[in-house]
Amino acid sequence: MIAVAALAAPVMSAQQAQRLSATKANDYGLIYSLPKTMLRVTIEAEITVKKPGEFYRYAPKYLNVKDPIKAESHSARMLSAVIESYGIPDTDETYSVQFKAGYPVYVTLDTKGLPMAINTEETPKTTLVELPEAKAALPTPLETPAARQVISEEMLQSQSTAKRAELAAQAIFAIRQTRSDLITGQADNMPPDGKSLQLMLDNLQAQEEALTAMFLGTTSVYTQVESFIIDPSKLADNDSERIVVARISAVDGIVDSDDLSGSPVYVDMSVISRGEYPVNEKGQELTFPKNGIPYCIPGEIKVSVVYDGKTYATDQLATSQTGIVYGLAPNSFTDKKAPIYVIYDPATGGILRQGPALR
Length: 359
Hints:
Elements: E1 2-7, E2 17-21, E3 29-51, H1 59-63, E4 73-98, E5 106-110, E6 115-118, H2 145-149, H3 153-157, H4 161-184, H5 194-216, E7 218-232, E8 240-249, E9 253-255, E10 263-273, E11 293-307, E12 310-328, H6 331-334, E13 340-344, E14 351-356
Antiparallel strand pairs: 1-7, 2-5, 3-4, 3-7, 5-6, 6-13, 8-9, 8-10, 10-11, 11-12, 13-14
Helix pairs in contact: 4-5
């Protein structure tokens, strides 16, 4: 089964460890679950909203602009995608493992109860993936304090749109003349210093932009970021799968996959390799060791995020669903001469590294 769920908050990346020891008190037994690999796809989309100004019909006449915004419009485009993997406890792969007395074996689990290591304080290094951040739209010129300053009493009192447009155009040219006089030093009341001059010029610029927006319209742009979880368990039996992970709507931004108001964002998954049982020198598959300490030999899949025919992210990831469960001989951890340690991948349950344990 491949399931998709939206996330309200990011999954924790930092690993916090808890240590459990095989002692006489627990009959030298430890319980842990192997992970089921989950995928998290984070999508960044940009939404653009255009709105016409009150005087857009008069833009050609007063500002010589032939193509002002004439009607409200919404558009959306995808900016980026990030693919990650992590593990959750697989209830179908929970084991009680038994060690013999004589060597203090201990297992390090993460906060979800997934194995991180046996017989070592070292844990797998985690890499924090940099995710995009949502950005709110900046105020349009008509949403600034300057927009209120440019509305004269005469404009407020006029009932004629044509007259208000004429007054707004006159105000634009008056602002431009004032700015020119300030820059050339010909204004009747010049500011006392450069800082004051810059403040006046900035204010005049904001006022002109507000008045101009009344003719040309406004464009507002914001970005949205959402994460979705995919369970690729169906790849245990299928070699490939395509799902709609989300949709991007021009009006509502990133929406769920079943919201047909948006265009689909696809996640394509295909199996690159499957986990295989170890073989002996004759090429024969080894059998599961008696009382073996289970771990996963993962497979590998290719994951791509596709929108509007373009691929925005591609990665190759190890997954437990395309792997097999094998086991380490329990006496390899309790050998008095050469006990071993193991460090696991908490996303798959596979072995990242093993070697002689420090005594």
